[in-house]
Structures are given as C-alpha cells and as structure tokens.
From TrEMBL:
<dbReference type="InterPro" id="IPR058533">
    <property type="entry name" value="Cation_efflux_TM"/>
</dbReference>
<keyword id="KW-1133">Transmembrane helix</keyword>
<dbReference type="GO" id="GO:0030003">
    <property type="term" value="P:intracellular monoatomic cation homeostasis"/>
</dbReference>
<dbReference type="InterPro" id="IPR050291">
    <property type="entry name" value="CDF_Transporter"/>
</dbReference>
<protein>
    <submittedName>
        <fullName>Uncharacterized protein</fullName>
    </submittedName>
</protein>
<dbReference type="InterPro" id="IPR036837">
    <property type="entry name" value="Cation_efflux_CTD_sf"/>
</dbReference>
<dbReference type="InterPro" id="IPR027469">
    <property type="entry name" value="Cation_efflux_TMD_sf"/>
</dbReference>
<feature type="transmembrane region" description="Helical">
    <location>
        <begin position="254"/>
        <end position="272"/>
    </location>
</feature>
<feature type="transmembrane region" description="Helical">
    <location>
        <begin position="173"/>
        <end position="194"/>
    </location>
</feature>
<dbReference type="Pfam" id="PF16916">
    <property type="entry name" value="ZT_dimer"/>
</dbReference>
<dbReference type="GO" id="GO:0008324">
    <property type="term" value="F:monoatomic cation transmembrane transporter activity"/>
</dbReference>
<keyword id="KW-0472">Membrane</keyword>
<dbReference type="Pfam" id="PF01545">
    <property type="entry name" value="Cation_efflux"/>
</dbReference>
<dbReference type="GO" id="GO:0016020">
    <property type="term" value="C:membrane"/>
</dbReference>
<feature type="domain" description="Cation efflux protein cytoplasmic">
    <location>
        <begin position="347"/>
        <end position="420"/>
    </location>
</feature>
<feature type="domain" description="Cation efflux protein transmembrane">
    <location>
        <begin position="151"/>
        <end position="339"/>
    </location>
</feature>
<feature type="transmembrane region" description="Helical">
    <location>
        <begin position="215"/>
        <end position="234"/>
    </location>
</feature>
Length: 434
C-alpha cells in the first residue's frame, strides 16, 4: 500500500483535526497509528478505496480561483454547475454492475463499503439550493398528511377492536397487543401536542426555540411504556403461579379482530414505506412494522393456549411485554443522548465539511467542524481559515453565506461560522469544568 497516499486519504475522515493541513506532521503520525490498528479486511477495503484516487493530492485542498468557475468579489461561487464537483467525485461512484460483481465474487464487505461510499458522495453533490415547485410541495405535503392522520385514526379504530378482543377473551397475549395499541394513540397525541408547542415561537423567552419539547415528549412516553410493560409482566407471572389454570376464552371473533388489525397495519406499512424519507412518516412506518410482529405473535400465542396448554397465553404476555419494554427503553436512551448533546454521525459531519470546503475560494482551510444534537435537530460549528489580508466585509459575506447554506441542510437548526487567519494554534473553545 502506498502509505503516503493512504495518509492523505485518511485525513479526509479526521473531521475535527487541527486543520486540513498537508504539512501537519502530528496528523500524519496519527494517521499511521490509526491505519496500523485496522484488521486485514479493513486494510483491504481501505486500499481498494485509495486506489480509486478519491483525493489524489491534499494540496488540492488549498484551491486557487483559477479552477473555480465564476465567483463574486467575496469569493462565493456564482455558477454552481461549474464548481459542484471540484474533486471529480462523481467519477468515483461505483456502478451497480460492479457492486453485483463484488457480491458474486464473495466480496460482500467490499460491496457494502462502496454502496455506503456511493451514498456519501451523492450527499456531497446534492444541491441543497434546489428549488421545489409549490405544486410538488403541496402534493407531497398532502401525502404526508394522509400517512400521519390515516395512521393516527387507524390506531384509534384498532384500539377499539383490540380492547373488545382482550376483554372478551381475557387473554394476556391479546391484552399486551391492546396495551401497545393504546400506547400508539397516546404517543401520537403527545408527539402532535409537543410538535405544535415546539412550532410556537417565543423568541424572547426561548431564544433557541422549543424544538427539544418533542424529544422530551418521547422520553416521557417511553417511560410510561416501560412502566406499563413491567406491570403486564407482573400480571402474567401472577397468572402462571396462581391456582387458577384456565385457558383464555378465545373465539373466532376475537382472533378475527386481531387478524383485521394485522391487515390494516400491513396496508399502512406499505403506504408509509413509500414516504419513509420524511422522519414523521418513517416513525409511523416503524411503528406499523413492529405492530405487525407484535399482533402476529400475540395471535399465535393465544391460539397455542387453546391447542397446547393454558400456560402459553401468559408466556406470550411476558414475551410481548419484554419486547415492548426493551424497545422503548432503547428509544428513551437514544433520546436522552440527543437532548444531552451527542455528536452527529460522521457522514453528516463529512457532508458539512465538504459543503464548507467548496463554498468559496476565499476559504483556504477548514480548521474545525463540529455538529451535535440539541434534541432531534443539530447545531453546527465551523471554523474556517482565510487569508490575513481578506477585507472584513468579504470575510463577513462569505461566512454569512456559508451559515445560511448549512442551515438549509435537513436536520440543521442553527449554524455558527467562525473566521480565523491561522490554524496553527490550540483549540479556541473548551468545555467549562464544573
């Protein structure tokens, strides 16, 4: 492996380094130490990637105006088409034919790696300034509303029939599916309420908005689900250990109602899958998928309690309650991390880095890129380096335009761009010790 070339490519992923500096010796030592720790498969994949020449020379990072297309006095690119792919990344996208060839040659790991790389390159080259027609937007909004409100009212209807099935049969397995249906309604109500509250702007009282209310609502709901699941487990254990050994009163009507719930959930899942790029609809899609599995398992365990033994019903109740408990505990944990301020994923930060890098010829280096969650949304901090002789009005215009561009990226709540004239210094912002 060409170690020098590998080091140059490894720098691309070190998004919070001191700088994108081809002459940074400390960073080169770090890169060598990092690649030496990789296992053989990782090294093979990395070698294949570097052979593509994704970045041929890191000196290209310090760009000149001569290869940048038309620019304004502030250095911002005016012809996006002339500068949307300065590193010719589009040429590095691996075709579907080549990906299939990797799989046929039992190189599924390599195929998976390049598939992810294709998605990453596509996100780099996406035009975030692209305008969507008002008619198309209204059409998409209508589809999303159908998915959201259709799912919500369907959950109310399904809760009614599952409540009847659970009460009339006295089945703990069907009771677990009914509890899950009830929680779907409560979850929808909480999320709708917190979403409306979050969208009400009170800029003087809440300068950064109230978007974190949605995350708080999810945490509250997850806690409620965990409590109810625990209570259901206790009730199922009590049934198993009691002297009363009677099977549930299941009838074709009870089972048919649960079957109707499964069919309705399947249809909703198929519809929501076509709109899964919208986060709200994706949440409902995942919920419908989970409900299909839960209701199917509850139906199976209820049927087995009639054919095998009465004990299959409380066992099914315990299994379903445990599944709900684990699922929502994970959900609560993930949302706690979001509200605490966990870093955004590396692909997202890499995209922000690329957007900043190609924004203007006045930007010589990218010093630091940080992106961290503040609830569901992300705050972004970018430190860029310009020439010391750059006029103040130019540095202001370039950084402000970059800030506005980053804030157009889906999921970004706020962006902060800091301009410096040098990157050979210690980090300027440290967390305060308490």
């Amino acid at each position: 492996m060409n170690q020098g070339k590998a080091n140059e490519n490894a720098k691309l992923n070190i998004i919070q380094s001191d700088a994108f500096d081809p002459f940074n010796k400390e960073l080169n030592i770090y890169n060598e130490a990092t690649t030496s720790k990789w296992n053989k498969e990782e090294q093979d994949i990395f070698k294949a990637s570097t052979d593509l020449g994704l970045i041929s020379n890191f000196r290209d990072l310090e760009r000149s105006a001569g290869n940048s297309g038309n620019t304004t006095d502030s250095g911002e690119i005016t012809e996006v088409s002339a500068f949307q792919d300065p590193y010719r990344m589009r040429e590095k996208i691996i075709s579907k034919k080549d990906l299939d060839a990797f799989r046929k040659n039992k190189k599924s790991g390599l195929a998976k790696f390049y598939k992810r790389q294709n998605a990453l390159i596509s996100s780099y080259l996406a035009n975030i300034d692209e305008k969507v027609s008002k008619e198309d937007k209204e059409k998409e909004d209508r589809k999303v509303k159908i998915a959201v409100y259709g799912s919500f009212f369907a959950n109310i209807f399904l809760f009614g029939i599952q409540l009847f099935a659970a009460i009339s049969s006295k089945s703990l397995s069907l009771l677990a599916t009914m509890v899950d249906a009830l929680m779907d309604i409560i979850a929808g109500g909480i999320l709708v309420y917190t979403s409306k509250m979050a969208n009400k702007n009170h800029w003087l009282k809440y300068p950064t908005g109230k978007k974190r209310l949605e995350t708080v609502g999810t945490i509250i709901f997850s806690t409620l689900m965990a409590t109810l699941s625990t209570q259901l487990i206790i009730e199922s254990v009590r049934t198993i250990t009691s002297d009363k050994k009677e099977p549930p009163n299941l009838t074709p009507i009870n089972l048919g109602m649960v079957g109707i719930a499964i069919i309705v959930k399947l249809l909703l899942f198929i519809y929501c899958s076509s709109l899964r790029s919208y986060s709200t609809v994706k949440t409902f899609m995942i919920d419908h998928r989970n409900d299909i599995a839960l209701n199917s398992f509850g139906l199976l365990m209820g049927y087995l309690s009639l054919k095998v033994g009465w004990y299959m019903d409380p066992i099914g109740g315990i299994c379903l309650a445990l599944l709900i408990l684990v699922s929502w505990s994970k959900e609560a944990y993930e949302h706690v991390r979001l509200i605490v301020g966990v870093s955004a994923n590396s692909d997202f930060i890499n995209r922000i880095t690329y957007i900043s890098l190609v924004h203007s010829t006045k930007i010589k280096y990218i010093d630091t890129v940080r992106a961290y969650h503040v609830g569901e949304f992300v705050y972004v901090e970018v430190d860029v380096v310009m020439d010391p002789e750059t006029p103040l009005y130019t540095s202001h215009d370039v950084s402000e335009a970059l800030q506005e561009k980053i804030e157009k990226v889906p999921g970004v709540a706020r962006a902060f761009v800091h301009v410096d004239y040098d990157f050979r210094h210690s980090p300027e912002h440290h967390p305060k010790s308490t």
